[in-house]
Amino acid sequence: MKRKALIIIDVQNDFCPQGALPVPDGDKIIPIINNITKKFFKVVATQDWHPKNHISFASTHNKNVGETIKFKGHTQFLWPDHCVEGSYGAEFHKDLNLNDVDLIIRKGTNPNVDSYSAFLENDKKTQTGLHYYLKGLGIKEVYICGLALDYCVYFSACDAKKFGFKTYVVLDATKGVDVPKGNIEKTLSHMKSLGIKIITHEKI
Ligand code: VGL
Ligand code: ZN
Q1: Residues with CB under 6 A from ligand 1
Q2: Cis check: omega of the bond before 22, within 30 degrees of 0
Q3: C-alpha distances in Å from residue 118, one per residue of 2, 8, 44, 48, 102
Q4: For residue 68, is it within any domain?
Q5: N or C: which end of the chain has fewer CB within 10 A?
Q6: pLDDT grade, residue 73 (50/70/90)?
Q7: pTM score > 0.90 for this model?
Q8: In a domain, 20, yes or no
């Protein structure tokens, strides 16, 4: 089998309907993801995994969700409390089949650094180790799915491309939040301009 990896981003209760930061129809992609894992040499799943009082939580700063703060020269968008380490919201959705998963990566664990990408935290320096795992296994192609299309999927795909992988986003196996409005279109067109391939699961 060709050495391709599937990266399943943040299919966690808090990103599904009823969760703290729900992605519309976020749970609808789960059957599609469960159906494609067998096609891959390795399958990686990520979990957004924040300490209480994480920098990305509006509550940490007594601000409203959707406001931003400046921190060390970069802008941090403020989210509702979500994916607090060890909480129900941080658990994988119960329908996600983990049997074929080879590696789980938890990101966003530093209280002062957010992490949208599965490869690099938002400081753009701290690596999660995923790049070396894939490189060490001789993997050249990565397929990315999960939640949310315009945040963690987008940043993971951009970094995968930067690290030299042939990069695909499986469009019917991802959903976005579209915050701010228009963000899904904006991030999709940016990914296309970088040479990231946007496909549907039948094309894998
Ligand atoms: C995510 C916002 C905040 C995501 C994580 O998984 O896309 N979005 N933390
Ligand atoms: Zn988060």
Answers
A1: 10, 15, 48, 56, 79, 147-148, 151-152
A2: no
A3: 22, 9, 10, 9, 15
A4: no
A5: N
A6: confident
A7: yes
A8: yes
CATH code at position 9: 3.40.50.850
Tens of pLDDT, residue by residue over 83-125, are: 999 999 999 999 999 999 999 999 999 999 999 999 999 999 9
Active site residue 14: no
Give me the number of domains the chain comprises: 1
pLDDT at 12: 98
In a domain, 62, yes or no: no
Q: Is pLDDT at 65 greater than 70 in this prediction?
A: yes
The answer to whether 166 is a known catalytic residue is: no
d(CA 204, ligand 1 centre) in Å: 25
pLDDT of residue 161 exceeding 70, the answer is: yes
3-state secondary structure 110-167: CCCCCCCCCCECCCCCCECCHHHHHHHCCCCEEEEEEECHHHHHHHHHHHHHHCCCEE
**58 confidence band (pLDDT: 50, 70, 90):** very high
Domain that holds residue 192: 4-51+92-203
Alpha carbon of 66 to ligand 2 centroid (Å): 13
Catalytic residue among 83, 107, 114, 145: 107
Pocket test for ligand 1, best of 13, 14, 15, 76 (most atoms within 8 A of CB): 15
> 83 an active-site residue?
no
Q: What is the DSSP letter of 101?
A: -
Residue 110 lies in a domain: yes
